[in-house]
Protein 1
Amino acid sequence: MVVNNKKIWPVCTLGALVSGLVLLFAVSTDIGGVFMTLAFVFAALALKQTQNFSNLAFTLLIFAAVSASLFYPQAFSHIGEFNLKQLIVPLLMLIMFGMGCSLSAKDFAAVLKTPKAVGVGLLCQFSLMPIIGFVLASMTDLPPEIAAGIILVGCSPSGLASNVMAFISGANLALSLTLTAVATLLAPLVTPVLMSLLADQYVEINVVGMFLSILKIVILPIVLGVVVNTLFKKNLTLINKIMPLVSMAGIALIIAIITAAGRDALLSIGLVLVAAVIIHNVLGYILGYRLAKLFGLDEASARTISFEVGMQNSGLASGIAVEMGKVATMGLAPAVFGPLMNISGSALAAWWRKRNEAIRK
């Protein structure tokens, strides 16, 4: 008898979920946590078999990592005497190096081809999300450092996830890659200034220190990656195949470590933070798209700017929180934002893709 993988993983998901809930409330949270984590893993495997939602599989694996870190925080805090928080910045640098290896001078030359679209995208990126983050932080009455984390997410540039969603949705991928690269390169200057203006009431902002941290985490690895790509382009096939997997594993580990570090705070204010993050993310999509249209950009470019504005580089925000020594507080909003934006971004990309297919028919 041949077992159909498409049917077995949903069954496993349901079985693990029910078992986990029963064990959590009736037996032991330690045992129940294992089954709850497995439920996310099985759900990821189930989605991987589908045509429309396979790109959500990674996000569910992130939720599995978050689940494990909530139930077993000690496993994601230390290994012997080694504090796992020390891995966050090196992992981010490795991810940024991978990004640099995929870039070349041609990518930056694209700015000259579409100056209006790039200008509109950067304006939306560094105005809408910081302001929305500030308003949400003011309205939620969260602890100051956690509120500052919401603003930090808004003041960060877009990340690689926006490029993936632009590709899936049929948006302007070249513009997406250009905006991500340029916004990332501007981040050392723009992010510290915006944080000083908007978040100084919540936490002391060292503009020079933040500038140097972003240089270390982002600019140096990207520049090194671009140099390696330029000099050894023909020999980078293996690196370009491996780096996306390394990046995904690194992001999952970073989020798990941050979740474990801020577990107590997250459990006490989790719903408020999740609500704020969802509003931040969704308003970024809507206002980014509307403003792009208002400036007269075409549909594909407006969709791209929607993703670039709504989807932030939560990994960079996490790294900044680590450098400030506030990963358990300021790092929480980026850790929540990352998985949730991938769910919303995937849903939006799938919806726009279906609209494209309907129009072609």
Protein 2
Amino acid sequence: MRAKEGCNSCDAVFERRDEPLSAEGEKMMKQELLKKIGSMQQIAYARKIQFEEGRAGGMKAIEVKSGEISFTAMEDKCLDICQLSYKGIGLNFLSKPGLQGRNQYDTNGAEAQHSMMCGLFFTCGTDNVGGPVMDGNQQLVMHGRLRTTPAEHVCCDTYWEMDQYKLEIKGEMREAMLFGENIVLRRTISTIYESNIVHIHDEVTNEAFAEAPLMFLYHYNIGYPLLDENSRIILPTQKTTLKGENKSTSNWNWDKFSKPVDNLPEQVFYHDLIADKDGNTTATIVNDALGIGVQLCFNKKQFPYFTQWKSMASGDYVVGLEPCNCHVEARVEERKQKTLKTLAPFETAIFDINIIILDKDKKNWITD
């Protein structure tokens, strides 16, 4: 098995500590904390839950609390995170259909919009990213099937490792068909108590005996109250193109937000982001009035493309931050140009991303 070229920079950020502690210091930190509580579940836990009513009735999920950070990963929908809050403030967008489990129409063309709940993020791919399209005689569904694929072999764990209390979720999603593909996504979601980072580590493997397309996108969706007219988005972009236009410009107001406007059309921007010498780059949204923000940290070797979805419409008030390994809605054209990324039989591609919570009071704030 061989792996696509990537970078462990996200892991490096996740594991970094400013000053190494002695063995005695690590032991004391754990003991001093445990003196103040009866059970770690008082302040940090990962527990399986199940919703009971409405469209979400029967859906299984995993609820995680880690100090001031809380989030819910949907066991029945690719272990995607539907809700994330910090200090009790919601950071994600949830669309009109609300929380819901898998539906029979999820993979039926544009009908998918009836179940597109968004949440903090949903996973797009691996055969399609974007709207439904015909590729030859193959019907490709909106944003692919991964986002509604239930997880198998799911486990959640919390444990001490020296001075760190770790919370971890693991699971496996399989996208397969008779006489067709056999793609496995193995996902790990992890964080550390009192850390401001949630780390997503994905390994996508082709377990079939034929080459398979590899289109992969994280669809992050930020909503009110983090998103409002005073919020600002920070992207190290060197080129920006508006969908439907064939030229680059800096005058599209992609970085500015208004109050909700009734029936305002959505916009989609394509950005070429600047990265450091190792390929690391970021996408950030902050709300100065709230003093909080969200930053995505990823690597351009894994995600060479970045799409921004902007909707200031009333009731659909959201900004999407979308690192991806392909151009959105370009499956057919990329196949014609022979630029469609693929996985060889038993090849594995690795994707990492850090979700970093920014807080004015914790000295990780961005001023520019």
Protein 3
Amino acid sequence: MPPAVTALQRQARRLATPCGDGELVWHVWGEGAGTEATPPLVLLHGGSGSWTHWVRNIGALVQAGRTVWVPDLPGFGDSASPPQGADADAVVEPLAQGLRQLFGDRPCDLVGFSFGGLTAGLLLAAHPRLARQLVLVGAPAMGVVPSRQFLLKAWRHLEAPGQLAAHRYNLAALMLQDPALIDTEEGLALGLHVANVLRDRMPRRRLAHTDALARALAHVPCPVHAIYGATDALYREWIAALQGAYEQATPDFRGLALIEQAGHWVQFERPRAFHAALLQALEAGAR
């Protein structure tokens, strides 16, 4: 890991809740456990990821007065695999159990990126009292894309140089609008991506290519916000259909923010613009 990531990890408290035969690992930054006005802020990472998907956001959120809780979702990072299943629906119950163990009856503010957004929608459809509000970031499965908009390269069969080239290609194809970011800041994006995909134990996920999130949102009563990079590779020209899809699917939809000059990994690519959009959404949803 790059030194900046290691330093941030050392600042966190590490907690664990049950997950199958092992643990669901939580990383916590900030003092206390939150208040009624500022409840725990829980960030769910994307597929083939870990808490490090939020590495450029955690510090600013703590400075804004939030206590930030970021799990490695079951099957990723330091957490054990879910007891059964290998997709977002398999993550729901271990995550619900963990949130109740950590927070009791107190709802959190929940933010989900990509696969984590799909997971968050499924979670609140089944357990609506767990969150005060939901922010979906680059979330798939809204049912507006007729076919997959990107193609990734396989890498597990390759030798080391070929693997690295494939990882660079995949970051540019899916995650980032600006490929120059892949090797900047001591190779932060590339280093995090490689470390994360090597620990992905759930590579055969399929729900992201369905309308599973749109169907789940019909059962989510809390305020829902959405933030996307304007050039998100999951949607491309179909991103214009997202506003209507959310309005149709969601009982209490509060709006869609599109971040210019940002792709799928919007919170990494444009952290300042993302931070402003996220805080605006959280403040609006709390009213």
